[in-house]
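>> received
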Amino acid sequence: MTSLGRLRPLAAGGLILGVAVCAAVLAPALAPHDPYAQEVGARLIPPVWEEGGGWANPLGTDPLGRDLLSRIIYGARISISAAALAVTVSMVLGVLMGLVAGYYAGRVDTVISNLVNLMLAFPFLLLALAAVAVVGPGFRNMVIVLGLTGWPIYTRVVRAETLKYREREFVLAARALGLGSWRVIWGHVLPNLINTIIVMASLEVARMIILESFLSFLGLGIQPPTPSWGSMLGEGRVYMFTHWWLAAFPGLAIFITTLGINLFGDGLRDLLDPHRVLGAVTARTE
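>> returned
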């Protein structure tokens, strides 16, 4: 029976994640101003609680007079959608390759496992930086790069689980009935991995948000004037000691959102399978 203590992280994380997703989806309705509108006369207005601030711009404005709250709300749409798309790409590719490697074994498993080990030998961030530097910045390129460099984690875990299930009685029975390999994989192996995949994907969203923010911070991700938490953080770093809110609020948005996703992922893992030890987080150090 699930204890109340195990549900608390799930509830807290779900609340934070729900607020972030609602902000992303309802950005046009929630944002008090156009996030792209520039007003020279309203440059660098401080937050409402500081001298010179006002409720017209509760979190202040940036050097171009753009409302910071509106840009953070629209930034949620960019950062969360980029992370979700990147996770989808890496999950589909990684799960497919893990199923193939684990079920067919032999030479196919050897080739895929060696490829996974090769990619995991390099820091993920280094691979992403190199790839983005080659293909160029932008939303689409960044999503593709993050997706194509993030699949090995899924492949390693799914392969290990598939190797375990391929020798189970129900899989052997399906083979004995003459079902084809792919029918066995999709109908009997994959359904038993859904919980693991869901938990991994939920935790990976937080990592992808951080990576997207880092790339945008360096100027290799989302390009101005499109609001992204990472690019806003990069723009505000030069004002860190004079106009602190320019970097503090985007950074706080990243921190709270990733914290909520991690709490939600941990709670979801305990809820779906409290006895499972998920190796995705430590896969790169093994």
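>> The longest helix spans residues 68-104.
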